Structures are given as structure tokens and as C-alpha cells.
Amino acid sequence: MDMALDLVAGIGRATLSLLRATGAITLFALSGLSHIVRPPFYGRVFWGSFLETGFFSLPVVALTALFSGGVIALQSYTGFAQYHAQSAIAGIVVLAVTRELGPVLAGLMVAGRVGAAMAAQIGTMRVTDQIDALDTLSTNPMKYLVAPRLLAGLVALPLLVLIADVLGVAGGFLVAVVKLDFSATAYITATLNALKTEDVTVGLVKAALFGFLITLMGCYHGYNSKGGAEGVGSATTAAVVAASILLLAFDYLITDLFFSH
Amino acid sequence: MTDAPPKIRIRDLHKSFGSKKVLDGVTLDVAQGTSCVIIGGSGSGKSVLLRCILGLMTPDSGSIEIDGENILTAPDSRRESLRGEIGMLFQNAALFDSLPVWENVTFGLLARKHLSRRNARSEAGGILAQVGLDPSVGDLYPAELSGGMQKRVGLARAIAARPDMLFFDEPTTGLDPIMGAVIDGLIVNCVKTLGSTAIAITHDMASAQRIGDQAAMLYRGQLVWQGAASTLMDSGNPYVDQFTHGRREGPITMELRR
Q1: What is the ipTM of this complex?
Q2: Shortest CA distance to B48 belongs to which of B10, B83, B85?
Q3: Are B49 and B38 a contacting pair, CB within 8 Å?
Q4: How many other C-beta atoms can be found within 10 angstroms of the C-beta atom of residue A68?
Q5: How does pLDDT run across A107-164, given as a tens digit for each residue?
Q6: Please, what is the end-to-end C-alpha distance for chain B in angstroms?
Q7: Sheet strands (E) in chain B
Q8: What does the pLDDT profile of chain B (258 residues) look like in tens digits?
Q9: The domain containing residue A215 runs over which residues?
Q10: Which residues, 6 or more positions from A78, have their beta carbon under 8 angstroms from its beta carbon?
Q11: CA-to-CA distance for A120 and A190, rounded, in angstroms?
Q12: DSSP reduced 3-state for B166
């Protein structure tokens, strides 16, 4: 009986803790979003975050997309060849890349690279009193630190994913043409036939949401970090883990919303 | 003492974290144009008191008046504008790592639109000169500076807007005695030049006597002594005597925790 009560109490505590965290993150997100549209605007901070999120993530995202497109082409060839369905490979590659792999892989790469850096930077500012210093200098930390980063994530990730889509398809094309002896013209025609505007736009909607979630987690965990270097390290880990899980969960929800029927 | 109302008037301030009382009925007046030094051991509530005055923390009860206005009940916009009248030197200077020194120094002026970016660099040079730094330091980043230089830059940032009130959180911590004395000298000079009202918290008795006109001691969230800073070393108060002379025996007991 006692064990059962302990179990129920434990579940209750975990649920309350989850609800509390969800509420705190939601309020943090709403506050950050409201500061995006209210002046003053910190264009230089936005531009720096945009470059960090978009431009400097480009090499790792590009390579990931290129190789992933190639792997899909190779793997689907291995499977489809058994049923003489090799002609479907171009369609498989373009759908997989634009609907899923482009946004998800770019998101995970950016979460590891940018989300962690944001959490570490803001967390260090928190534990070294730099955020308090902002306050004393008549600068709202949410407006100066959080809002520009959220906006940068919202804008930069769709652009990154657009490039990832092109490179992922190019990776599949290269493998199909160079290694598997497909006709280049036939592959491109099949790719264009399979591609729908909706595939790309939903992928970009996902990317914008992922960009927001990654920067939100980076900012939230950094902003609320405590306890010196160890606290900053924990915040960085929490930011990457939370962003990755949320990203995959929302990927499923959006896929279900747009493509399940 | 004059009959003029105090610049900063704190009444019955309480602040707890969970069951731990950090401020327990603090009452303190700081007269216009004077410097008050608050001493006390680690965890005695000094930093929390300063954060409450700065508006970085909200006390549980009590009042903090500046020029007769209770800032705890003032609207956010008023509290925001009051921050423009305050300069703060943090314990570790809290300079913004990602910005060069000149931008750190003029950050508040740029934020309040008192200065354009075009003029900020040369303005920063003038302010850096006031704290004994060469204007060329403006192009360096905080990580390239020594601890003493970081404190000077922090002081330059605090005085840049010529504030009415200056707060110092352990200004000499981590500095050698000579650099500590230099920083104290700069603080005294800045406070006198600007005519500001200052509050400093410190563990450093030499620094306390150099900076302060008045002094107060916090112990377990309560003010146990107030008087002239010059009498710190022979106050006659058992708490102050034990603290200033670093004696193990006396009314102050250390909370040892595993």
C-alpha cells in the first residue's frame, strides 16, 4: 500500500514539475516573442545571431545534407532493386530530403552547434552578473539577449534548410548518376515530377519552428542557469537535449498534421 | 547630521529564500552626497540588500525610498527611469565579453540614446581617462585586461552617465593591496566629483575606511551597528570588533555546513 502511494506521489510530483517547467518556458517564449515586435530593436545583436545560426552552420549542415541524400539513394537502390523499382529512387530522395531529412538533420546540427553555444553564452552572462549589469544599464535582457536570437532562429533555419534540400537532392543525384549509372536527365525529370510545392513549404514551416525551439531552449536554459561553471555546463546539456527532443516531437506532429491524410 | 531627508531610506526590509531569512528588518538611511559602506561576513545579506535597492530582487516586505519615493511600489516605467540615475560596479566587473571596452563603457549611454555610436568611441576615451586608463584600451576586449583594469573599466561604465547614485559590490575583491588602494582612490574621486550618493559592500576593512563616510554592519540579515566609517576599528561594538579584527572568539558564529 505504501509503495503504491509512493508511486502515485512520485508521478504527481513529476507531473507538477513538468507542468511548472512547461508554464515557465511558455511564459519565457511569449515574453521573448512580444519583445521581437516592440522597440527598441537590437539589429546588431540580431545580425550576429543570424550569422552564427545561419552562415556559420552552413558547412556542417551542407555536408550532412549532401551525404544523407547520397545514403538514401544508395540504400533505396539496394532495397528497390529487388523489386525492379529503381526508378522510384529520385522521388524517394527528394521527398525524404524536403519533407524530413532537410529540416530534421539541419535542426539537430544547429541544436548541437548553436543551441549549446547560446546556452553557454547566456549562462555565462548570468553567472558572471552580466545580465544584472544589463538591467542596471536600462537594457531589458529579454529584449537584448533573447528576442534577437529567437528571431534569428526563425529566419535563419528555413534558409539553411532550403540549401540543405538542394544539397541533399544533389547528393542523391551524384550517387545515382556516378555510382549507380542512372541517366542524369531521367533522374532530374523524375525528381521534378515527384516534387510538390507543399513538400518544400511544409519543410520550411518545420524549419522555422525548429529554429524557434532551438534558440528558445538555448536562451531559456542559459538565462536560468545557476551555480557557476557546473551550472552553465548543465544548462548547455539541457538546452541541446530539450531542443532535440522537442524538435523530433514537433516533427512528428507537423508531419501528422500535413501528410497523414 | 543634517535635517535634509536622506537620499536613500530603507525601512524594515525583509527577504527570505524558503525558510532562510536573509534580510530581517533592515533599516538604513544614506544621506545625499555621502558614502555608506556595508560590511559583514559571507551570507550576511549584503549583496541581497544591494540587489533589492537596485531592483534586481524584490523584498518580501518593507520599503526602499529614493528621494522620498518608494521604488517598490513605483510603476515599472518609473523604476526603469530610476535605473538611469544609478551606476553599479559589480564584484567581478561584469563586463560584456563580446563587446570591446569602449562599447562596454558607453553601453548605458547608447541604450538611453544619450549618445550616437559615431561619438561613442571618443566619449569612451574621455571616460577611460577619468579612471586612469589610456583611451587606446577602448579597442581591447575584457578578456585582454588584467583584473585591476577590468575593475577600472567597470568603474568607467558605472560613472559614464554621471549617475546620482553609485553602488559598489566588493570593489577590491581579487585585487592586490596596491591596486585595491588605487581603485578605492578612484571610487572616492568619482563619488566626490559627481556629488553622488554611494553604497559599497565590502569585506576589506582598509577599503571600507577609505571609501566610506558612514558604515553599517549586517549580521544574519540584521543591522547590528551603524556609525562613522573612521570608527570601524574601534567601534566598541562586539560584532564589529570581532569582524574588523578577525577574531575567532566573539558573538559572531560561523555556520559550518557540509
Answers
A1: 0.87
A2: B10
A3: yes
A4: 23
A5: 999 999 999 999 999 999 999 999 999 999 989 999 999 999 999 999 999 999 999 9
A6: 46
A7: 8-17, 20-30, 35-39, 61-66, 69-70, 86-89, 165-169, 197-202, 214-219, 222-228
A8: 456 789 999 999 999 999 899 999 999 999 999 999 999 988 889 999 999 999 889 999 999 999 999 999 988 888 888 888 899 999 889 999 999 999 999 999 998 777 888 899 999 999 999 888 999 999 999 999 998 899 999 999 999 988 999 999 998 888 888 888 888 988 898 888 889 999 999 988 989 999 999 999 999 999 999 999 999 888 889 999 998 888 888 888 866 543
A9: 2-259
A10: none
A11: 45
A12: strand
Maximum CA extent, chain B: 59
State whether A136 and B84 contact (CB < 8 Å). no
Chain A residues in contact with B92 by the CB 8 A cut-off are 128-129
**A contact residues 69-88, partner B, Cβ 8 Å cutoff:** none
Q: How far are the Cα atoms of A222, A230, B206, B240 from residue A237, in angstroms, in the given order? A: 10, 11, 43, 45
Question: Judging by DSSP bridges, how do beta strands B86-89 and B165-169 pair with one another?
Answer: parallel
- Domain count for chain A, please give it: 1
B94: nearest CB among A121, A128, A138 = A128
Q: Using alpha carbons, list the distances in angstroms from residue B254 to B41, B42, B163, B233, B236.
A: 9, 10, 37, 21, 21
Selection from B161, B159, B180 nearest residue B171 by Cα: B180
A130/B56 Cβ within 8 A = no
Q: Position of cell 540614446?
A: B113
